[in-house]
Amino acid sequence: MASRASRYARYLPQEKLEISLFPFLSIFLCVMGVLSFINILSSVSTPQKIELTMELEQGYKVAFQVFTLPDGVISVPPINRLLALQQVVDEESRSLLAMIILRRQRVIDEVKYAQADPALVARPPNVEDISLWLYEMRQVNEMALRVNFLYEEFMLFGIYPNGGEAYQKVRSVMSRSGDARSISIGLEPLDANWSLSLHNQGAK
Amino acid sequence: MKNLINIDSLTDIVSNSVGILIIFAVINLIHDNNKTYELEIPIEHETDLRPLYIISKDDRLLILNTEQVFINAAQEAGKGAANNKRIFDLGYQGLFAQIDEKKGISFHARGTDDWPKFTELQKPGSELQKQLQAIDPQQYFAYFFVYDETNPGSTSGSGFESFREARKYLQGRQVKSGWKPVNSDFPPSICDLSYSNECQYLPSFLGSDAAAKSS
After folding, report:
1. Average pLDDT of A14-41?
2. What angle do CA B162, B165, B169 make, to 5 degrees?
3. Do A174 and A132 form a contact (C-beta atoms < 8 A)?
4. For labelling, which of A9, A42, A134, B204 has a CA lying 20 to 30 Å from the CA of A127?
5. What is the pLDDT of residues B25-72, one digit of tens each?
6. pLDDT in tens, B169-184
């Protein structure tokens, strides 16, 4: 009897362990869809990052950056090399430079704080602010010249779309200012999706 | 035929695609984090070169023939069209003009359809290329009036891209360039420095020029 049963079992079709691949396929397709979506989204909408963080320099010329937006202007003054300049100037200039550094650091902190939405720190161009920038730049440039320190600040405008009006106002103030006569100027167009990134900016 | 499209091969293809997409996503992420735009650092400077005015709007460029512009403006002014700072049709490339003692002659670019697109700079022998190639770098520099107004759906000023491309093209030909943003409230204008300090048209040194020379 047993031998008959075993003989019968030998001829039974072997049952395969079959795993359905449908769930895997479904998961893979979902992942693929999500990844494709993310890839397309990132290539289309990710703003181009612009490294405006470090002090922009052209040889010994260092940029005092002014970004003009439809809502106003944002200033990003340079600081880093002022600390080196501070070491070589006389006592009187040193204290003036300390004040300038302190004020500039405050401006940078303010911009950093509102970095998520730079428009928040944009202020309508104000004659007093612009005059102060120009006065400080001239003072710093003259100090550097007196001690033969290779350093010169110039004003670099980053012009965002519809930021031309603010630029014209700043230039109009500059055209009437005696301090601005010795200051070099540069300007560059920026697209609206070019974001400002201000980490590492500030006194070191 | 039935065996060709079985679920094993489909799963294989899809899983491979997912793998590739993951690699793309990672590369994108790394690339984006490291991508920095080399901001051009232009610095304006005095020059003996004469400016050649170019209007950049709606991704198009118009190289102004100042002689023709002034002849047309004088004719219209003679007819009284320019009285009381009235805006009149200049009869030149869709430009309207306004004459003011302090601002000189201002241009209002209303129809730009006839102006060449900046993409023509890529086409060898195009009219735009010929016009820019005709600029003598020993005598002239290009001065751009660049419209900063945005067109719907764009993140850039309507003249920004064309200006950048034209500047790059001219830089390759050693032609210096300068620019200023303009819009309908602050239209492009040509005036004399003796009237106002704002009537200054200067070319710029470009940071990339200096980098190219030093390398």
Report:
1. 78
2. 135
3. no
4. B204
5. 888 777 665 555 566 778 898 899 999 999 999 999 999 999 999 999
6. 999 999 999 999 999 8
Chain B residues touching A29 at Cβ < 8 A = 14
Q: Which amino acid is at B26?
A: V
* Tens-place pLDDT, residues A61-95: 898 989 998 888 988 899 888 989 999 999 999 99
Chain A residue numbers touching B40 (CB-CB < 8 A): 188
Beta-carbon contacts of A62 under 8 Å, excluding residues fewer than 6 positions away, are: A55, A56, A78, A81, A151, A152, A153, A154
pLDDT over 90 at A151, yes or no: yes
How far, CA to CA in Å, does A142 sit from each of A153, A176, B24, B38? 10, 20, 52, 29
3-class SS at A177?
A: coil
Q: Which of B11, B41, B197 sits opposite A28 (nearest CB)?
A: B11
The shortest C-alpha distance from A160 to chain B (Å) reads: 8
Cβ distance A192 to B185 less than 8 Å, yes or no, reads: no
Give me the count of residues in chain A. 204
Size of interface A-B (CB pairs under 8 A): 142
Average pLDDT of every residue of chain A: 81
